[in-house]
Amino acid sequence: MLQIAAIREHKDDFVKALKKRNIDAAPLFEKAIAMDEKRRSLQTQLDETLAKSNLLSKEIGNLFKSGQAEEANNLKAQTGELKEKSKDLSEQLNNAVEGLQSVLYLIPNIPQESVPAGNSDEDNEVVSQHGTIPTLVGNAQPHWELAKKYDIIDFELGNKITGAGFPVYKRKGARLQRALINYFLDKNTAAGYEEMQVPHLVNEESGYGTGQLPDKEGQMYHVGIDDLYLIPTAEVPITNLYRGDLLEQKDLPIAMTGYTPCFRREAGSYGAHVRGLNRLHQFDKVEILRIEHPDQSDSALDAMVVHVKGILEELELPYRILRLCGGDLGFTSTLTYDFEVYSTAQEKWLEVSSVSNFKTFQANRLKLRYRNGDNGTELAHTLNGSALALPRILASILENFQEEDHINIPKVLIPYCGFDRID
Hints:
By secondary structure, the chain is α+β, with helices and mostly antiparallel strands. The chain is built from 12 helices and 18 strands. The strands form 5 sheets. The chain has an 8-stranded mixed beta sheet. Strands 5-7-6 form a 3-stranded antiparallel beta sheet. A hairpin with a 4-residue loop joins strand 6 and strand 7 (228-230). The mean pLDDT is 93.
């Protein structure tokens, strides 16, 4: 969420920057400023009314002390009127604050200058590409066929017990899934990320804190009777661990990692591009998150990108890095790098990670601050990234490491799996 003071000061610059997202934000900014004017006016009226009421109460007390009861009682009628007025002003002020907040919640983050203009993922900028795309045997199959051939993932059984988009992992498929989770967590903790195990349900305030609400409300599973949401990513509960906190500067940076299942109602259209593990309603993901001093968040983002690169290179998967354009940039992000691995059997790139800097956008919603050297307080910067999302990593391993009669396991995973092939 943008700060209203920043909107007032940089409105024209923000309007221009948000055009990269193909958004005309001027009406929203003008509405926010008008509502803030109303809020400020009501706050001034309330402060003046309360001050007048306090002065009157002191005067009444003095009159009673001096034996002027009649004059004191006459003034008491005025205090009653002032109390009613202050009550009415308080209600109006609360409504104005909530109204301003609801408008600010609709405004996305400001893209950084390096974010390219564009309308969709087709306009994302390829930053770099790494690894050699393997040459597969002539009868190479996509992962959903391999899953059936080796009986390691059952999509029909998942559909039976829940519905489409909820696969069942079996035998070596389940063990490979678990191996990837443990490997990712070990890599992250070795890099200094503290492992956290968090709830898989969050309250509404947590959803607003990291920006999934109201922007992604239609994509989140809502448990209405308890007013809780199944998490779309570990980013939500882990970042919210610090909601409302005032940190000491010496405590920064804070680096965390966690594994969770993720739940998303989005299913997209039907067809080959969403078959198998390509797009699911429930999937596993290991996340890395950082809370940073504002001066360090840019370098922290670069370090996170390098960290994810290292994991993909150990997995021996060909990958490329994209800088997302304005039209594909997430609502809360100011700059995002996507990682895609190449699926040779499908002949397409599959997104496996997004690494993003949110700067103060989430911290303002979370009221997450740190104490600076002047004993003042400032908003911290937050960042997060996937390290990594499992479904498409698993799909790429199955497809890229397939041989005619078996699937090899990447060397780095063999100690975690306890086997070197699926046959």
